TrEMBL record:
<feature type="domain" description="HTH tetR-type">
    <location>
        <begin position="14"/>
        <end position="74"/>
    </location>
</feature>
<dbReference type="InterPro" id="IPR001647">
    <property type="entry name" value="HTH_TetR"/>
</dbReference>
<dbReference type="InterPro" id="IPR036271">
    <property type="entry name" value="Tet_transcr_reg_TetR-rel_C_sf"/>
</dbReference>
<keyword id="KW-0238">DNA-binding</keyword>
<dbReference type="InterPro" id="IPR039536">
    <property type="entry name" value="TetR_C_Proteobacteria"/>
</dbReference>
<dbReference type="InterPro" id="IPR009057">
    <property type="entry name" value="Homeodomain-like_sf"/>
</dbReference>
<protein>
    <submittedName>
        <fullName>TetR family transcriptional regulator</fullName>
    </submittedName>
</protein>
<feature type="DNA-binding region" description="H-T-H motif">
    <location>
        <begin position="37"/>
        <end position="56"/>
    </location>
</feature>
<keyword id="KW-0805">Transcription regulation</keyword>
<dbReference type="GO" id="GO:0003700">
    <property type="term" value="F:DNA-binding transcription factor activity"/>
</dbReference>
<dbReference type="InterPro" id="IPR050109">
    <property type="entry name" value="HTH-type_TetR-like_transc_reg"/>
</dbReference>
<dbReference type="GO" id="GO:0045892">
    <property type="term" value="P:negative regulation of DNA-templated transcription"/>
</dbReference>
<dbReference type="Pfam" id="PF14246">
    <property type="entry name" value="TetR_C_7"/>
</dbReference>
<dbReference type="GO" id="GO:0000976">
    <property type="term" value="F:transcription cis-regulatory region binding"/>
</dbReference>
<dbReference type="Pfam" id="PF00440">
    <property type="entry name" value="TetR_N"/>
</dbReference>
<keyword id="KW-0804">Transcription</keyword>
Length: 217
């Protein structure tokens, strides 16, 4: 019984946490980061102020949680890095996970908040980069380095290669959404964008095939 109550309390706490972060994201977009109070977020989330302050004692801590959870949701963390051995398969898995991640409306909303508030609150941009973008980018960089070390890819500069790969996908899936409110490409078009990015990477970074030795006469 105690275990069931404990599990119930954890589920309830998680539900309240999700309600808080959802309400905060919506209010930050509507009123701006500076114009949104924790008390207003608690009201919109349907929780008491004491419940909100218990989980997020400051507005910065709340924004930090939003950034971290947005980038880690689904398969955005380093633990999702594929095994080495098949460059095409690995890049395809990374590419589709990244497209799913940055294609969520919540991700575009997060970028809009940061961009709108950056002049007054540069720390928000730092959070977005250091807690979200950088860890994800680093996981892709490490994957490419591992394939290079294993001889499955010729990637002398994994930083540039990771930038190229993720940039090709984000340029189709995320950035148009920042300016075009009706940008909603079909799943097949997103799939094709990822596949084209994979093909470009393979053309650039597949190791040159060594010629077969000449048969002895």
């Amino acid at each position: 019984m105690a275990a069931e109550l404990s599990a119930h309390h954890r589920r309830l706490a998680q539900q309240k946490r999700e309600a808080i972060t959802t309400a905060a994201t919506e209010l930050f977009l509507e009123r701006g980061y500076d114009g949104t109070s924790l008390a207003r977020i608690a009201e919109a989330a349907g929780v008491s102020k004491s419940t909100l302050f218990k989980q997020f004692p400051t507005k910065a801590a709340l924004f930090e949680a939003i950034v971290t959870e947005s980038w880690q949701r689904d398969a955005g963390d380093a633990a999702a890095r594929p095994r080495t051995g098949d460059l095409r398969s690995g890049l395809t898995a990374i590419g589709h996970r990244y497209a799913d991640l940055v294609g969520r409306p919540g991700m575009a909303a997060l970028f809009r908040i940061v961009i709108a508030e950056l002049p007054r609150f540069p720390e928000l941009g730092r959070m977005q980069f250091e807690l979200g973008k950088l860890p994800y980018f680093t996981s892709v960089q490490h994957y490419l380095e591992a394939e290079h070390e294993a001889g499955n890819a010729d990637v002398p500069d994994a930083v540039s290669a990771a930038n190229q790969f993720l940039g090709m996908i984000a340029n189709y899936v995320l950035w148009p959404r920042m300016l075009l409110t009706d940008w909603n490409p079909a799943a097949a078009d997103i799939h094709d964008a990822v596949e084209q990015a994979v093909q470009t990477m393979l053309a650039r970074y597949t190791p040159a095939r060594r010629p077969d030795p000449k048969p002895e006469r």
